Amino acid sequence: MRKRQQGRRWFLLAALASTSVVWLLRAARADEPAVPANREIAEALRWVKSAPQSVADYEYVMTARVRLLLFWAGKDDVGGGYIRRGFAAEDRRQELIQVLFGSDPAKAPRAINRWGAGTEIAWHKNPAGADGGADDVVSSAFFGFMKSSRGKSAAEMQEELKKEKDQGEHSFTGILSRVDAGRAVSLVVPLASPTDFTLHQYGQAEPLILEKLNRTDRPIKEVKDLAGCGRASEFLATVSELVNRALRGEKGPQALCYVYDAQVHTLRMERVAPVKKLSVQVKGARGGMLVDRTYDDLLEA
Asked: Helix, strand or coil for residue 37?
């Protein structure tokens, strides 16, 4: 049963996504002085850099589908990514959720290179496995990194890639945010790189953007009134909480607020339906079958 629930959990999370130092957290009292925004950003950066290493890893292959009037056209194995998650061994209140998804220019039509990654550190009131409810996040940090693009079609993206190649400069964007109950700070920085990093080179690109976030003098967005959203979770932990609710047998519609870039958003789970069997076939870009199996007892949310 445990394995089955884990499989159902990550089937849901994949669908909804389609991104050693331990800090002791406590709720701030009203009579305490406010912590400067730059100090909160610096602390969030340390959380990201010291993210737990012992995590579960779920790898994915990406397929693309386009609706052409009366029929669908598409291609398998045009990219991929992963979902990673786990709790710090030193402190079971510190949770890591990390995603990376995007196209692989070596496989995607027109060599499109568009991808993004997100790392979220969620601090829980109670250690993992303790009673007290799943949605008990008291503070969180999010680090996002993506290939910047204004293109809304494959042709526009290809034109952007050509201009970047001709100019020898490729555009990326990084974001670092911190959320506590009723308060949020966020910092966004651009990165112009001579290397057009792909999703397979995230390990090379991440230190560059983290260093730029650490040294930038760009203004920090700060919001002290989160419009009635008392949750300290950001996007990934909010997805995880809705997945947990579905696995507990709760039905939709359900909605949870979350904060991204110091702004309040709402994530809705409209419905939950059982899927008794799901057959999946994925053909490799260079021939052969990458996936050919049938999954039993899933949930679609």
From this structure: helix
